[in-house]
Design brief:
Length: 256
């Protein structure tokens, strides 16, 4: 049987040398998905190298060849990490059929690379949102098993009873199972309609749903911490690129 020709890829990343690189890593470094999802694309025949279907998960590629995913040529890109202080009325998607404003409208000037939100915030939820083209990191930060810490400032329509704070810590029965807060407390003893909440869950609208189950309406929900990233000194609607220390911390989270 004729030995398969190894693929070779063109790279624009100055950190990549002439050594072979695994195909799934190359796809991940292009920013479109994680390595695990890249393996699925390869298995499903969605990837070609130099015009030939890539069928070996361990296949390696080199500088100079052409890799396509779903018929579109890809290249390794430099990883970019952008922190946004999300305002209200922006949705956390890359596009919207109803032409509503998206968070990508706010970060257009941040980079020429294609970046994506890490997880979602409701349209009316504000605060810390990370956007990146690092597919592997995104997969880890959004996976339930990673237990990434998130802290929110919550304003309710009425004072929260102390007994209900205990219930929120003990567990609230919802349609998708029992959910709990890691921590919950009044942020100001004189205003019991405002509380701070720490969670690790990635369930959709979990904070709003838990309070609603106890008869409260969430009037304001602001994420103040995500994976140790804060919006300190970052005005609403503004963005900044993560510094090296912050990126190193996220990479450590991904490897733990």
């Amino acid at each position: 049987m004729e030995k398969k020709k190894q693929a070779v890829v063109h790279s624009e990343n100055t950190n990549v040398n002439n050594d072979d690189i695994r195909l799934n890593k190359y796809i991940s470094n292009s920013g479109i998905c994680s390595r695990r999802d890249a393996d699925i694309l390869i298995r499903n025949g969605k990837v070609t190298v130099n015009g030939q279907p890539a069928i070996e998960l361990g296949q390696k590629v080199k500088r100079g060849d052409i890799v396509t995913v779903n018929g579109k040529k890809i290249n390794i890109t430099k990883h970019v990490y952008v922190l946004l202080n999300k305002p209200k009325d922006y949705i956390t998607t890359t596009s919207d059929e109803q032409n509503r404003k998206t968070v990508l409208d706010l970060v257009k000037a941040a980079t020429k690379e294609r970046i994506y939100p890490v997880g979602r915030l409701d349209r009316n939820t504000t605060g810390v949102l990370l956007l990146t083209n690092d597919g592997d990191l995104t997969k880890i930060l959004t996976h339930p098993s990673s237990n990434i810490e998130k802290i929110y400032a919550v304003t309710l329509n009425k004072p929260v009873l102390a007994d209900d704070l205990v219930k929120l810590l003990s567990g609230i029965e919802l349609e998708d199972g029992i959910s709990t807060f890691g921590e919950v407390a009044y942020t100001d003893p004189k205003n019991k309609a405002e509380v701070g909440v720490k969670i690790h869950s990635g369930k959709n609208r979990i904070i709003r749903r838990m309070f609603e189950a106890l008869g409260y309406d969430v009037e304001k929900l602001d994420r103040v911490v995500f994976a140790n990233l804060t919006k300190k000194d970052l005005p609403r609607g503004k963005w900044r690129v993560l510094n090296d220390k912050e990126v190193d911390y996220l990479n450590k989270l991904a490897k733990r």
